Structures are given as C-alpha cells and as structure tokens.
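Appendix B, Record 12. Input sequence as logged:
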Amino acid sequence: MSAKQPKKQLILNILDILKKYTDEDHRLSQKEIVDILKTEYNMSADRKSVRRNILDLIELGYEIEYSEAIRMVPNKATGELEESYIWSDFYLVRDFSDSELRLLIDSLLFSKHIPYSQCKELVEKLEGLSSRYFEAKVKYIRTMPDNSLTNRQLFFTIDVLDEAISRGRQVAFSYNRYGTDKKLHQEKNADGKVKEYIVNPYQIAATNGRYYLIANYDKYDNVSHFRLDRITDIKMLQTPVKSTKQVKGLEHGLYLPKHMAEHVYMFSGESIPVTFKAKKYIVGDVLDWFGKDVEFSDETEDEITVRVTVNEKAMRRWGLQYALHTKIISPQSLAEQIKDDLNSAIENYNAT
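Logged structural output:
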C-alpha cells in the first residue's frame, strides 16, 4: 500500500474523481467520494472535508452541479429538530458533451492525412475530456488498422505554417510525390538537386479528408495549393509574404468559403462561369460540392439547369465524375474536353 498523501492533495484527488467518475448521467454522493478516496487514493476524509473542498473547486471556477435536500435532525445540545442541508449527486460539467467528443473523434477517424499513431494518441486525449463511461463506448478505436500512407512531419508542418501565417512570413519546403515503393520522394530539378519551394502562405484548409495550403508560389503570380502531407523539411523565412493584391484570384482578399466552393478539388487556375443540366435527384450533391451560391433555373420534372462559378480543371474532373447525371452546356470548350475524355475512356475499355 502506498504512503498516505498530504491533506493538500485532497482537493486535487477530489477533482480527479469528479473527472473520471462523473457526468450528467453518473453522479456521486459525498459518501461515495469518501469511499473512492479511501480505496483508490489511500486517503481518509470525512464528508464535511469533501463538501468544503468541492466548494473551493467551485470558487476556483470549476462548474460542479449537485442536488440539495433538507432533512430534520436533532440538535446535539437541545435535542430539538432542526433543518439540515444535505448535498449529493455531484458531477463535473464538461466543456464538451459526449456527442461533441464523438463528432471530433469521428473526424479524426475519417481523416486521411493523420498518421495512425498520432490519430490514436489524439483520440485518447479526447477520451480524457469525458468520464470513464464515455471511454468504454469507443474501445473499438484501439483496433484501427494502420493502412494509410502518412507523413510523420505533418504536425510539425502545421505548427510552422500557423506561425508563418500569423507573422506574415514566407516559408520554404520540399514537395514530395509517392512512388511505387509507397514512399515519399522529393521533387528534383533538372540537375538532380532537390527542388526548394519558396511560397507565400495565406491559409490552411481541409477538404476531402486532406489538409491543403492555399498560397502563392513566389515565382508566379497565381494561387497554388499544396497538400500538407506532401510537404517536408519546412522552415519559416524572415521574408515578408507577398500581398494578396499581387496574386491573381486573391486581389480582393481570400474569402475561404467562396474559394473552397470554386476549387472543389483544390486545382489552381482561374474560376469561370459554368452552366450544366443536372438530374434533380442529385441537387443535394450539387449543393454539397458548390455551396448555396449556385443558381437554379429552367426546372422540369426530371432536370434542372445549374450555374456555378468554379475552377475549370476542377469542373472537368467533376463533370467526369457525374457524367451519368449531368451535361455541361457552357462553356462549349469544357463540354468538348469532357466529351473527349469520355471517348478516351471508352477506347481504353475497348482496347484488347
């Protein structure tokens, strides 16, 4: 048995008990807290001490709920019955509800860019924000398969980019591609030396389960997108970032919702107005991809005309993905590109 803990440790142990064993659906009485102190912390305390320390925790800013009841007890001196207030049903109010933690954990599980070991560690930290009863609900997470291709420098990259963006500084890094050996390989110049990217970082965004950096490659004047899990050996420079006024597409600043709606696959390049016919049963998909700024017109029983402003390369890929349900009307050049792509796909399947 461990040595008895000092009395000043009592308040910390009581807080630890409330964190581990209580939530809105699981509450403890003073007696139960006393019993846990004895069995798990080797600490003796009476109910008055428990109540006094809980009051101190409340005064320190911890949100602790409890119920209060009145009972009649005899006065030790006179024997007359007097009112006595009994506190019970203590629980610690959480910063996050279990449903909110569930949502955060699911977001981690569905991500494609966080290494398995780091994902598991983050999940365990999120579990620690609730009681032990929530932890029991998510035990299956510990059996997650480690089958993703990951870059171990991801969190370091995010830290450097956060600081660079907040301080308005350029960054330099290597950019990588996966080879058939399933490993990242740094891009190289014609002379065989590792290519260094110097970019002006403006925003980190998450889409399609990936993190992207919205930036300007300093050699050019347009917007570029870099996947964070492809970045290695990043460092912040002392050079100030280029003003967005000098970057095509960001002359009026970066409005993230609009930018993401126009760059559904995070391709770089100009956005153009596109009109297409769509089956009405995919209206939800259209809104998911392009947001609520889409314009609908010429509705029939089965189809509707849609007008969006979107990156042309992204729309070409989207048009192929939804070719069974949509038809590009304008620009005609985009419609022809998609038609050629479909013909090439047919030839590919017809090839012996």
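Residues 66 and 90 are 4 Å apart (CA to CA).
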